[in-house]
TrEMBL record:
Keywords: Electron transport, Membrane, Mitochondrion, Mitochondrion inner membrane, NAD, Respiratory chain, Translocase, Transmembrane, Transmembrane helix, Transport, Ubiquinone
A GO-annotated cellular component: NADH dehydrogenase complex
UniProt enzyme class: translocase
Name assigned to this protein: NADH-ubiquinone oxidoreductase chain 4L
TM stretches of this protein: 6-22, 29-49, 61-80
Organism per entry: Odontobutis potamophilus
Classification via InterPro entries: NADH_UbQ_OxRdtase_chain4L/K, NUOK/Mnh_C1-like
């Protein structure tokens, strides 16, 4: 395994483990998800460069667009949660309440 591949795999799994262990606040969970998406974007870009193919050149841009949409949706949920509940603790959120 080459050093860039090891770096991207370790960055993804570091984001995944931090998501599982440090999920007390919604903001920290969103930051972990963004770190995972960034490592996937970099790995997909590296894979596209290694293939030297123009067929898969647009896939990193699609992933970047989806991650931007995910970030904006997550921040909107964070603002709505902070306004309604007064905090961003994930333990205070109950999915069964309206």
């Amino acid at each position: 395994m080459s050093p860039p591949h090891f770096f991207f795999f370790s960055a993804f799994f570091l984001g995944l483990t931090s998501l599982t262990f440090f999920r007390t606040h919604l903001l920290s969970a969103l930051l972990c998800l963004e770190a995972m998406m960034l490592s996937l974007l970099l790995a997909l870009s590296l894979w596209t460069l290694e293939l030297n193919s123009t067929n898969s050149a647009a896939s990193p841009m699609f992933l970047l667009a989806f991650s931007a949409c995910e970030a904006s949706t997550g921040l909107a949920l964070l603002v709505a949660t902070a306004r309604t509940h007064g905090t961003d603790h994930l333990q205070n959120l109950n999915l069964l309440q309206c």
